[in-house]
C-alpha cells in the first residue's frame, strides 16, 4: 500500500512537470499552428542559469531564499528574452507554416544547444532544494521540494485556465486557435496575440526548468529527454488542446512511475511509445483532438 | 522521364564515380562517401515530401538499416551484397508497419511520432546485447575486392538510387503521390487507396534510408546507437532545405555543401552543431527555397527580362 | 408518381447521419437509376453535402443502409465505393493544383486503370480532355487556370475514373450564364457517351429545372418531395421551404 501511494505520488510529480512543459507546446501550436522544437531550450537555459548563478549569489552572501528567488527570476527572464528574440527574428515569419517553422526551430535547437555546450560545458550540475525537509503524507515520505513542484504546476495550470477563460487576451487566443481567419475578421490583433501566446509558452517552459532544477541533474542537453515526453504528451492529448496536454502528461507520468518501478526506465519509455502508437491508430488527432 | 534527363544523369554519375576512383583511399575518399550517403538520406527525405509529409523518422530507418547490415554481416555472416540488400528490405518492412499506423495522421502528428519513434528505436538498440548495447557494433568491413574503392561503389549506388527515385517521381505513381499532397480527398474519390499509397511512398523512403544506413555501417566500420538519433534527421533536413526541396538535385547540393563545410568547421575545433544550426536558420530566413530555389528564380527572372526586352523592341518598331 | 420498374444503381434506405446533437440527415430513402440525371436541391443547411458524403463513403451513416445494385455497401470506405463506379466531385477546388491538367486527369484515370498501364491512361486522358474541351490546356498547371476551366478539370478528373454514377457538387458555382449553359450541354453529352447516371447538387434553379429528369428536395435533413421538375416547381411544400409561407398561399 505504501508502495502504491509512493508510485502514485511519483507519477503525479513526474506528470506535473510534464504538464507545465507541454502546456507551452500545445499553446504555441494552438495559437500559431507551429511546432516549436526549440521549446526545450527555455527549459534548459533557465535550469542552467539557476545551477550556475545560485552558487555565485549564495557565495556573495545572499540568503538562501534571496539567492534562489533572484536566480529563478534571472533564469526565467533570460528565457523570456530568448523567446522574444526567437519570435521576432524567426517564428514571426513562419506562422501556420508547419514544415518551415519546425525546421527553423530545429536550426535554433542546434545553434542554442551548441552555444550552451560551448559556454557552460557538458558537465552535469546539481542544484540544491529550494525548500529543505520532508513531510509524511499517507505513510509516505515526500520532500517539500516535490510538493512545491506539484503545487506550482497546479497553480499555474489553474492560472492558465483562468487567463484563457476570463481575460480578453485569453479569449482572443482561443478564438485564434479555433479559426484564425474569423478571429482576424473580428478585429483581433493577430500579431500581438501570437507574440503574447508565444511568450506565455516560453514562460511555462522556463518555469518547468526552474522547478525541475532542484530535483534532477542539470546539463545543456537536459531539455531533449523532456522534449520527447512533452511532445508525446501533446500528441496523446491532441495538439492545441489544453486539457489534452494535462491528461497526456499525467498519463505519461504514471506510466513512467509504475513502469520504471516494476520494470525499468527505458522499458517505460518504450511502453509509452507503443501506447501512443495505439492511441493514434484509434484517434489520429489525439485523444481530445477532433478525430 | 525524358531521354535527355536519363542520359544526363548517368553521365553525371559516371563523372562522380570517376572522381571517386581518382581519390582512392584516405580522408577525401571518406568525405566523398559521407557526402554521397548524406545526399541519399536527404533525397529519401525529399521523396517522402511528395506525399506532403516530413519524415522525421528517417534517422530511425537509417539506423535500422545500419544495424541490419552489421548484424547480418558479423553475426549471420551473410555475403556483403545480401547484407546490404537486407538492410534496405528490413527498413522497408518496418517502414510498412510504422507507416500503416502513423500515416493515418498528418503533418505535426506524423512529424512528432517520427521523432518519438527514432528515440525509442535508439533505446531498443541499447538494450539488445547482441547488437552491442551502448557501445554498438564493430568490424563491419566491405569485401576485400571493394575495400580500396568503396567510395566508388558508394557513389555509384547512391546515385543509382537517386535516379530511380526521380524516375518514380516522374511516373504516374509519382503523380499519384503529388496528387495526394495537393488534394487527398479528390484522389480518394477516384478509387485510389490513398492510405496504402502513402504507405508505399514511405516504405520506398525507408528502403532508401536503410541502404544509406547499410552504407554508413560499411564506410565507418563501426556503428553505435548515438549515430542514429533525431539529430541525424535534423541534419538531413538541413541538407534538404539548404539545397532546395523543390528540385531533385537540391538534397545533393545541400549535402555536398554542408558536409564539406561541416568537415572544415570540425577541423577548426568542434561546434558543427552551431554551424548546422546557423546554416538552417540563415537559409530559411534568407533563401527559403534553398540553393536550387535561388537558381530557379534567377532563371525565371532572366526569362522575364528577355520577354520585357522583346516587347520593348516590338514597341519601338 | 408512377412506380419505377427499373433496378436502381444506388439506393439508400432510411439513411441518416447524426453529429452529436444535430441530425444532419434523417430517414432519407431515394434511388438513382441508370443513365438518369437526378437533381438534389434544398435550402442551405438542408443536408445535401452530408447526403453526398454519405453515398460516396466519405462519411459513415449513423442509421439506415446504402446499396449499390443489390450489394449492401453500408459503411464502405470512399475508395471502395468509388471503385464500384460512384465518382464524386467536391464543391471547392476539386482538382490538384500543382499538377498539369494532363496529370490531373491521369490521376483520375489511374485508380480504376492501374498506374502501370501507361498506354491506357494516356488514352483516357485524351478522351477525357476531348470530351471536356481541355485539349489546349493539357500542359498548363491546373492552379494557374481561370475558375471556369478549373471547374471543367474537376469534371474531367471524375470522368476519367470511368463513372457509372457521376455525382457533381455544385458544378455551376461561379460560372456566368453562357458557361453554365455550355456546362449543361456538356453534362448531357457525358451522359450520352459514358452511359452514366448523373446526380447533381445545385443552387442554380433554372439549370436544375432544365437539365434534371427527376428532382429530390431536402429540407432540414429530410426528404420533402421527389418528382419531375414540373411537379417540384408547383409543389407548395417546396415553394414554402424555399420562399416562405407567404408565397405558398398566393
Describe this entry's structure for a reader.
- The complex is a heterotrimer of chains A (291), B (317) and C (250).
- Chain A has helices at residues 2-32, 39-59, 64-88, 98-120, 144-166, 168-178, 180-185, 190-212, 222-237, 242-262, 265-282, and strands at 134-137, 140-143.
- With 291 residues, chain A is an all-alpha fold.
- Chain A has one domain (2-282): ABC transporter involved in vitamin B12 uptake, BtuC (Orthogonal Bundle), CATH 1.10.3470.
- Chain A has a two-stranded antiparallel ribbon with strand order 1-2.
- In chain A, a hairpin with a 2-residue loop joins strand 1 (134-137) and strand 2 (140-143).
- The longest helix of chain A is centred in the N-terminal third of the chain and has 31 residues, at 2-32.
- The model of chain A has no long low-confidence stretch (mean pLDDT 85).
- With 317 residues, chain B is an all-alpha fold.
- Chain B has one domain (3-229).
- Chain C has 250 residues and is of the alpha/beta class.
- Chain C has 2 domains: 1-85 and 163-179 and 195-250, Rossmann fold (3-Layer(aba) Sandwich), CATH 3.40.50.300; 93-162, no CATH class.
- Chain C has 10 helices and 11 strands.
- Chain C has helices spanning 48-56, 78-84, 101-113, 118-132, 147-160, 177-194, 205-211, 229-233, 236-243, 245-249; strands at 10-19, 22-28, 31-32, 37-41, 63-68, 71-72, 86-88, 165-169, 197-201, 214-219, 222-227.
- Chain C has a 6-stranded mixed sheet with strand order 7-8-9-4-10-11, with helices on both faces. In chain C, strands 1, 2, 3, 5 and 6 form a 5-stranded antiparallel sheet that branches.
- In chain C, helix 3 (101-113) packs across helix 4, helix 3 runs parallel beside helix 5 (147-160) and helix 4 (118-132) packs across helix 5 (147-160).
- Residues 245-250 of chain C have low confidence and may be disordered.
- The A-B interface holds A 29, 35, 89-90, 93-94, 98-100, 102-104, 106-115, 117-118, 228, 231-232, 234-235, 239, 266, 269-270, 273, 276-277, 280-281, 284-286 and B 54, 101-102, 104-109, 111-113, 115-117, 119-120, 123-124, 126-127, 234, 237-238, 241, 271, 273-281, 284-285, 288.
Amino acid at each position: 500500500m505504501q508502495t502504491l501511494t509512493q508510485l502514485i505520488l511519483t507519477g503525479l510529480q513526474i506528470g506535473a512537470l510534464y504538464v507545465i512543459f507541454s502546456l507551452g507546446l500545445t499553446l504555441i501550436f494552438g495559437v500559431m499552428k507551429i511546432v516549436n522544437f526549440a521549446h526545450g531550450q527555455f527549459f534548459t537555459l533557465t535550469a542552467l542559469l539557476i545551477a550556475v548563478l545560485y552558487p555565485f549569489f549564495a557565495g556573495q552572501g545572499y540568503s538562501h531564499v534571496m539567492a534562489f528567488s533572484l536566480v529563478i527570476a534571472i533564469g526565467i527572464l533570460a528565457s523570456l528574452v530568448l523567446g522574444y528574440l526567437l519570435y521576432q527574428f524567426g517564428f514571426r515569419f513562419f506562422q501556420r507554416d508547419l514544415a518551415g517553422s519546425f525546421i527553423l526551430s530545429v536550426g535554433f535547437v542546434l545553434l542554442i544547444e551548441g552555444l550552451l555546450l560551448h559556454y557552460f560545458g557538458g558537465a552535469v550540475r546539481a542544484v540544491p532544494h529550494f525548500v529543505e525537509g520532508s513531510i509524511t503524507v499517507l505513510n509516505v515520505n515526500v520532500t517539500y521540494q516535490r510538493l512545491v513542484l506539484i503545487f506550482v504546476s497546479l497553480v499555474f495550470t489553474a492560472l492558465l485556465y483562468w487567463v484563457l477563460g476570463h481575460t480578453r487576451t485569453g479569449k482572443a487566443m482561443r478564438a485564434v486557435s479555433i479559426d484564425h481567419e474569423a478571429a482576424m475578421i473580428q478585429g483581433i490583433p493577430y500579431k500581438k496575440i501570437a507574440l503574447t501566446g508565444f511568450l506565455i509558452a516560453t514562460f511555462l517552459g522556463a518555469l518547468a526548468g526552474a522547478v525541475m532544477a532542484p530535483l534532477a541533474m542539470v546539463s545543456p542537453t537536459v531539455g531533449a529527454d523532456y522534449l520527447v515526453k512533452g511532445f508525446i504528451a501533446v500528441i496523446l492529448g491532441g495538439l492545441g488542446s489544453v486539457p489534452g496536454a494535462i491528461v497526456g502528461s499525467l498519463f505519461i507520468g504514471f506510466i513512467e512511475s509504475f513502469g520504471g518501478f516494476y520494470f525499468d526506465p527505458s522499458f517505460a519509455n518504450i511502453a509509452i511509445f507503443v501506447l501512443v502508437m495505439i492511441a493514434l491508430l484509434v484517434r489520429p488527432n489525439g485523444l481530445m483532438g477532433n478525430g | 522521364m525524358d531521354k535527355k534527363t536519363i542520359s544526363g544523369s548517368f553521365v553525371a554519375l559516371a563523372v562522380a564515380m570517376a572522381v571517386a576512383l581518382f581519390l582512392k583511399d584516405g580522408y577525401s575518399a571518406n568525405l566523398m562517401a559521407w557526402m554521397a550517403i548524406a545526399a541519399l538520406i536527404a533525397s529519401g527525405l525529399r521523396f517522402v515530401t511528395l506525399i506532403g509529409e516530413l519524415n522525421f523518422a528517417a534517422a530511425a530507418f537509417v539506423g535500422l538499416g545500419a544495424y541490419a547490415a552489421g548484424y547480418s554481416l558479423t553475426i549471420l555472416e551473410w555475403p556483403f551484397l545480401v547484407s546490404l540488400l537486407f538492410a534496405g528490405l528490413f527498413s522497408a518492412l518496418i517502414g510498412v508497419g510504422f507507416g500503416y499506423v502513423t500515416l493515418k495522421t498528418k503533418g505535426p502528428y506524423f512529424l512528432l511520432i517520427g521523432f518519438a519513434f527514432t528515440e525509442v528505436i535508439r533505446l531498443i538498440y541499447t538494450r539488445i546485447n547482441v547488437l552491442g548495447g551502448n557501445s554498438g557494433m564493430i568490424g563491419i568491413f566491405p569485401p576485400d575486392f571493394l575495400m580500396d574503392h568503396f567510395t566508388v561503389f558508394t557513389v555509384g549506388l547512391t546515385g543509382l538510387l537517386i535516379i530511380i527515385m526521380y524516375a518514380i517521381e516522374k511516373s504516374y505513381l509519382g503523380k499519384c503521390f503529388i496528387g495526394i499532397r495537393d488534394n487527398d480527398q479528390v484522389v480518394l474519390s477516384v478509387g485510389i487507396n490513398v492510405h496504402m499509397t502513402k504507405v508505399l511512398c514511405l516504405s520506398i523512403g525507408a528502403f532508401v534510408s536503410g541502404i544509406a544506413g547499410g552504407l554508413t555501417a560499411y564506410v565507418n566500420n563501426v556503428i553505435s546507437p548515438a549515430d542514429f538519433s533525431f539529430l541525424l534527421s535534423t541534419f538531413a533536413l538541413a541538407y534538404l532545405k539548404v539545397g532546395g526541396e523543390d528540385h531533385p538535385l537540391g538534397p545533393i547540393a545541400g549535402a555536398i555543401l554542408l558536409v564539406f563545410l561541416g568537415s572544415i568547421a570540425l577541423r577548426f575545433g568542434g561546434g558543427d552543431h552551431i554551424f548546422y544550426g546557423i546554416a538552417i536558420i540563415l537559409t530559411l530566413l534568407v533563401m527559403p527555397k534553398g540553393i536550387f530555389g535561388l537558381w530557379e528564380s534567377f532563371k525565371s527572372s532572366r526569362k522575364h527580362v528577355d520577354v520585357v526586352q522583346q516587347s520593348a523592341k516590338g514597341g519601338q518598331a | 408518381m408512377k412506380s419505377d420498374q427499373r433496378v436502381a444503381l444506388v439506393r439508400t434506405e432510411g439513411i441518416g447521419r447524426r453529429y452529436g446533437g444535430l441530425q444532419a440527415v434523417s430517414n432519407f430513402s431515394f434511388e438513382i437509376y441508370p443513365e438518369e440525371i437526378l437533381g438534389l436541391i434544398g435550402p442551405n443547411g438542408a443536408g445535401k453535402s452530408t447526403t453526398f458524403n454519405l453515398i460516396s463513403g466519405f462519411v459513415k451513416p449513423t442509421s439506415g443502409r446504402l446499396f449499390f445494385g443489390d450489394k449492401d455497401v453500408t459503411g464502405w470506405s470512399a475508395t471502395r465505393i468509388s471503385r464500384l463506379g460512384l465518382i464524386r466531385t467536391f464543391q471547392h477546388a476539386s482538382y490538384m493544383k500543382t499538377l498539369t491538367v494532363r496529370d490531373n486527369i491521369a490521376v483520375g484515370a489511374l485508380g480504376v486503370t492501374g498506374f502501370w498501364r501507361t498506354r491506357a491512361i494516356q488514352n483516357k486522358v485524351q478522351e477525357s480532355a476531348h470530351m471536356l474541351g481541355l485539349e489546349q490546356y493539357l500542359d498548363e498547371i491546373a492552379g494557374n487556370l481561370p475558375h471556369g476551366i478549373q471547374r471543367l478539370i474537376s469534371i474531367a478528373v471524375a470522368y476519367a475514373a470511368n463513372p457509372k454514377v457521376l455525382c457533381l457538387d455544385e458544378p455551376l458555382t461561379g460560372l456566368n450564364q453562357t458557361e453554365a449553359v455550355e456546362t449543361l450541354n456538356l453534362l448531357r453529352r457525358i451522359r450520352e457517351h459514358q452511359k452514366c447516371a448523373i446526380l447533381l447538387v445545385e443552387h442554380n434553379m433554372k439549370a436544375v429545372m432544365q437539365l434534371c429528369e427527376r428532382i429530390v428536395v431536402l429540407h432540414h435533413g429530410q426528404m420533402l418531395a421527389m418528382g419531375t421538375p414540373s411537379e417540384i416547381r408547383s409543389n407548395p411544400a417546396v415553394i414554402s421551404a424555399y420562399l416562405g409561407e407567404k408565397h405558398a398561399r398566393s
